[in-house]
Amino acid sequence: MGLYPSLSLPTDSAEEPDFLTRLLDLAGGCRLIDWHFIRQLPCYVDSGITQRDQFRNDEVDLYETIVREAVQNSLDATPNGKQTRVSFRWANGETGLDGGWLREILEKQLEHAAASGLETEKIDFSSPSALVIEDFGTTGLTGSVEDKDNGDFSGFWRRHGKSHKTGTRRGRWGLGKLVYSSSAATGAFFGVTVREGDQDAWLMGQSVLDLHTYEGGEYPPHAYFSKMKGSKIQNMVPVPVNDTGYIREFSRQFGLTRNGEPGLSIAIPFPHESLTSEKMLGVAIINYFYPILTGKLVMEFNGQALDAENIRQLAHVYAKRKIPDIDELFSFIEETNRELGGGTLLSLRKGWLDDVRLDEDDFEPNDLDRLRTTFSEGRLVGVRLPLSVKVKPERKILDTEFHVFVKRPDSITKGIDLYVRGGLTLPAESKFGDRKAYGVMVANNEIISSFLGDAENPAHTKWIYNAEKLRKNYVSPGNRLKVIKNAVVNFYDVLTQAEEEEDDKALAGFFFTEEPEQESETSGGKNRPKPKTPPDDDIEVPRRKPRLARLETTEDGFSVRPGDGADMVRYPVRLRVRMAYDTASGNPFKKYSPFDFDFSGRSGSTPFVQATSDTVALAGFSPNELEFEISGPKFRIDVSGFDKNRDLLVKLRAVPPEET
Length: 660
Hints:
- This protein is of the alpha+beta class.
- The protein folds into four domains: 50-226 and 240-275, Heat Shock Protein 90, CATH 3.30.565; 277-323, no CATH class; 325-496, no CATH class; 547-659, Immunoglobulin-like.
- Helix content is 23%, strand content 24%.
- It has helices at 16-23, 62-76, 99-115, 152-157, 178-182, 244-254, 277-293, 311-318, 326-342, 365-376, 446-454, 468-473, 478-496; strands at residues 7-9, 34-38, 84-92, 129-136, 188-194, 201-208, 212-214, 217-219, 222-229, 237-239, 263-269, 297-301, 304-306, 346-347, 381-391, 396-407, 416-421, 424-425, 438-443, 549-554, 557-562, 573-581, 608-611, 616-622, 625-630, 637-640, 648-654.
- Strands 1, 2, 3, 4, 5, 6, 9, 10, 11, 12 and 13 form an eleven-stranded mixed beta sheet that branches.
- Strand 15 and strand 16 (396-407) form a beta hairpin.
- Helix 2 (62-76) packs parallel to helix 7 (277-293).
- The radius of gyration is 29 Å and the shape is elongated.
- The model is unreliable at 1-31, 50-59, 164-175 and 499-543 (pLDDT under 50).
């Protein structure tokens, strides 16, 4: 940095006048741009950055998180009707990045990084590298660059764990940008933004480290590469530099391609080794094939374009293991997008959600017959679902809508259900299980996007009933969220209730056929020989086998009722029901807690069980399991009293005789 001194600002107000006099910049009284580390005031609570694990853990990798966060923010800042373009590119010595220059701008920051425990001695400035992420077609970081306000600039640079975003805006937790500093060996990153309606480029940097001690003083996690505006430490605000010559050199070093276009460019020096173009390209396809296929998003990885024209080809190379039946799935998405723009979808009446589920009673008989016929022929069916939400504090009722589509192509090997809010997909919402079909829920309306956005977890992969923002902003939101989350599955089940579906695994949990085990002589019994494929003439297409029992959801629980095969069973039989509340990660049944509910009555609440007395007897129970003996084909079991604001998962199976 040469002319610019590195600053570690004191907290003793008695030192401020002389200190400030030496550091005042000639341009407007702002301190010169450099790293500004301000000591922790003794009266402040010590706080660390504990949220990094949300973005890099056993369930999500860093390269996945950084793609989702970058694209999410870019989609968020794209005006309606425009296409978002996001580029990921790696800079190094061969592209013009000078290690000496990079060392100079990071020198002071590296001292603090080492004090916080980062292994800075492993950083090799003779082989400099950086990950550069740029978006185009967006508004850039709007709002004041000099003062805290509710604009995007302050939200991105000056807030942590707090977000003002609403509506179709997708970044709501103020935590996702942690992935940029977490991706760097230095714990630091830089950003240059050009804002819509403003020709200037603005540069800042941020360091996010653990709470640490440096030269006898304690320092909080956040520090800035910036100017500092303000005459006292208590009211100082980090402000960016817009010196044309300096930003031109910065852009040349990192290879920024922005040339006056609005948007944001991020530079991450010495990125984590797992951040490779091949891995990130695969993540982009898996997570964002919906907005790419529908023309809302174009991406680039080290010069490799990813758009609607080539995503099928690239998906077969980079995402084949993660996306089964690529061509069929992508055709399904393109078809649903055309239907959304056509305006001919069936629309249900507003009272469809009064019973907190989508079922056949919500359809006119003629409409339902037509939908079932279309679906049974392997064609796309869809429905528009109107609903309203009541917002706080004025308790105003707002009307909105979402759409659901399902299709069952004959050729697919695995079913997939998608949940899309304004172009962002939430992969952890998938719940189709063994249903061999495609389904998608699309929420593009601003009101429902705001509602669902407030329900999202920090990683934007799942909707949570007890999300703080959801409870804070809406009146009784649980039932609304429940019908939205389950609408795709409910719609599919409505369409298949009246038909015999070809599914040779439908009875796996209810009827049992013992098959002799055959062991391979060469494998020691570990592998069984594959059965020979019979000639085509001998193949009989299996029809859907009947079910002993079926589950139906209710407002605060579920019912077990006879299936279409109940009359075919020799009684008595036993049914075992296992329950748990859904969790944001991991196996919900393994994470069950007796404090959620407890049928033994010792810990949590005890749900209410009611059954037809003449054909059903309670045969056993545990804290989260019930076992019933069924003596005839006419039976009904109702279990209620669960938390309406949590997603209840239920497993139902017949108990083999040897287990009784």
